[in-house]
């Protein structure tokens, strides 16, 4: 009895997100009731196939009913540290599981001793499980202590960023900003931050919006900023930000691209100064002077169409800030992100902005993006939404996704409630890769 019960508990706890330690007593009580109802000739292992005990339903219950239509993992699951199957501890546990006679095919006979001793066996197994849970709790406390150290936490996320850089380009979401509409960053955009790559507008927008969130600086996305700086009135008329009240902000920041080169725009309403910063340091006074007219036109157009009268009466004055000049041909995006971050975090407009080594800044900014991201298990890996619906968990990477987002039918969704399932990304990694042909 105790031998089989111990093997059963190990099976339930060996896989990530399968069961929480708090649910084990409830599981054992239910399991005990089923054993008492079995006839003497019925081996305990037949519980897997017995109609009175549905393993799939049991998994659903122990997973917090998250595979039956509710949203994401429970907070209780996120607090439990369970080893991944491919980790050293996970492999060790699988070896223990393989040695268990209850799992490897040997069917033990029904317990012949008096059933009154069953409670003692169960208590012994729960005592061992409790000791294991205490070890898991100690490991979790050590992890929390490590994350409380800023330098250690910073290094952790930087290492995670380097690992993502080493992966193949995909459409997976790697970071989410918990704002209205949930701003997301996908891996293909995140890879542009690798050394020597040209950055795209999405990762610059995500970085600037990340630091502007919760401040009195409004972030203008790179598309609208480009449309204003190019005088695209047809685009501007569709991007009037009617729900935004600029009087609630002291400044606005945005970036725009001119022929594969990024520049930064910063508007400071109290001083009525407008800055255009070019990482290469070219024609900043001219660009700032031209930008004052273009942004004045935009805010007047906004007033005429939406009756939003904030900032439409400001007569902007051009200004520049002395800053470090870009020396290579691929760091304009890095300089734009750093200059924007400095201006957002400064209580007063700085007279100079110093930019460090672009290679080091790329790693640092990648780590900051991952560190400031919302908890990914709460969001769909494909759409970045936390909306309710049918959720499925990948048993390989432990990521959650909507069944609709992965094109899963209702029949397949009901099936994966009871069997392991891997997402398309994890399955594609297992496929053999074509060998590169050697040059002649």
Plain-language structure description:
The protein has 440 residues and is α/β, with parallel strands linked by helices. It folds into three domains: 2-148, no CATH class; 173-374, Adenoviral Proteinase, Chain A (Adenoviral Proteinase, Chain, 3-Layer(aba) Sandwich), CATH 3.40.395; 376-432, 2-Layer Sandwich (Herpes Virus-1). 43% of the residues lie in helices and 10% in strands. The protein is built from 16 helices and eleven strands. It has helices at residues 2-13, 24-37, 55-62, 75-78, 88-99, 118-148, 150-165, 187-190, 201-212, 222-229, 233-236, 284-306, 332-345, 358-372, 410-415, 424-429, and strands at residues 173-177, 183-186, 217-220, 251-257, 262-268, 273-277, 317-319, 322-323, 352-353, 391-393, 400-402. Strands 3-4-5-6-7 form a five-stranded mixed β-sheet. The chain has a two-stranded antiparallel sheet with strand order 1-2. Strands 8-9 form a two-stranded parallel sheet. A hairpin with a 4-residue loop joins strand 5 and strand 6 (273-277). Helix 1 (2-13) runs parallel beside helix 6 and helix 9 (201-212) runs parallel beside helix 13 (332-345). It is globular.
- Per the CATH scheme, the topology name of the largest domain is Adenoviral Proteinase, Chain
- DSSP strand count: 11
Q: How many whole angstroms does the radius of gyration measure? A: 29 Å
Structural class label: alpha/beta
Distance between the termini: 67 Å
CATH class of the largest domain: Alpha Beta
Largest sheet: 5 strands, mixed
Number of helical runs? 16
> What is the overall silhouette?
globular
The CATH architecture category of the largest domain equals: 3-Layer(aba) Sandwich
Low-confidence sequence ranges = 13-22, 40-90, 96-118, 433-440
Estimate what percentage of residues fall within beta strands: 5-15%
Number of spatially distinct domains:
3
Give the strand line-up of the largest sheet: 3-4-5-6-7
In the CATH hierarchy, what is the superfamily of the largest domain?
Answer: Adenoviral Proteinase, Chain A
Helix-strand sequence: HHHHHHHEEHHEHHEEEHEEHEHEEHH
Average residue-wise pLDDT: 75
Domain PHD-type: 377-429
Domain Ubiquitin-like protease family profile: 183-343
GO molecular function, one term: zinc ion binding
Keywords: Hydrolase, Metal-binding, Protease, Zinc, Zinc-finger
């Amino acid at each position: 009895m105790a031998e089989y019960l111990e093997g059963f508990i190990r099976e339930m706890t060996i896989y990530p997100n399968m069961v929480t330690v708090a649910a084990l007593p409830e599981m054992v009580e239910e399991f005990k009731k089923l054993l008492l109802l079995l006839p003497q000739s019925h081996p305990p292992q037949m519980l897997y196939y017995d109609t009175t005990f549905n393993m799939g339903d049991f998994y659903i219950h122990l997973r917090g009913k998250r595979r039956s239509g509710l949203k994401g993992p429970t907070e209780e699951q996120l607090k439990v540290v369970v080893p991944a199957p491919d980790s050293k501890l996970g492999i060790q546990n699988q070896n223990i599981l393989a040695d268990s006679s209850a799992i490897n095919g040997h069917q033990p006979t029904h317990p012949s001793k008096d059933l009154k001793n069953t409670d003692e066996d169960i208590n012994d197994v729960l005592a061992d499980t409790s000791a294991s849970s205490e070890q898991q709790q100690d490991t979790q406390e050590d992890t929390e202590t490590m994350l409380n150290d800023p330098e250690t936490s910073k290094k952790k996320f930087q290492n995670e960023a380097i690992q993502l850089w080493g992966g193949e380009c995909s459409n997976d979401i790697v970071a989410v900003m918990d704002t209205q509409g949930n701003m997301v960053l996908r891996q293909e955009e995140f890879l542009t931050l690798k050394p020597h790559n040209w950055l795209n507008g999405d990762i610059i927008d995500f970085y600037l919006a990340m630091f502007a969130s919760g401040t009195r600086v409004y972030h203008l996305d790179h598309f609208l900023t480009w449309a204003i700086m190019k005088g695209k009135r047809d685009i501007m008329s569709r991007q009037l930000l009617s729900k935004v009240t600029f009087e609630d902000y002291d400044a606005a920041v945005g970036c725009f691209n001119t022929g594969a080169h990024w520049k930064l725009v910063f508007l400071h309403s109290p001083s009525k100064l407008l800055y255009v910063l070019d990482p290469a340091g070219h024609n900043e006074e001219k660009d700032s002077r031209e930008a004052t007219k273009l942004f004045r036109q935009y805010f007047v157009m906004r007033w005429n169409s939406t009756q939003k009268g904030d900032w439409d009466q400001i007569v902007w004055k051009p200004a520049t800030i002395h800053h470090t000049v870009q020396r290579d041909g691929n760091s304009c995006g890095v300089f734009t992100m750093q200059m924007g971050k400095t201006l957002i975090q400064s209580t007063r407009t700085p007279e100079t902005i110093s930019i460090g080594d672009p290679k080091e800044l790329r790693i640092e900014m990648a780590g900051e993006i991952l560190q400031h991201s919302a908890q990914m298990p709460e969001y769909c890996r494909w759409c970045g939404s936390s909306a309710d619906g049918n959720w499925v968990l990948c048993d390989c990477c432990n990521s959650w996704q909507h069944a609709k987002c992965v094109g899963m039918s209702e029949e397949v969704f009901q099936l994966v409630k009871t069997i392991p399932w891997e997402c398309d990304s994890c399955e594609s990694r297992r496929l053999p890769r074509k060998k590169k042909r050697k040059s002649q």
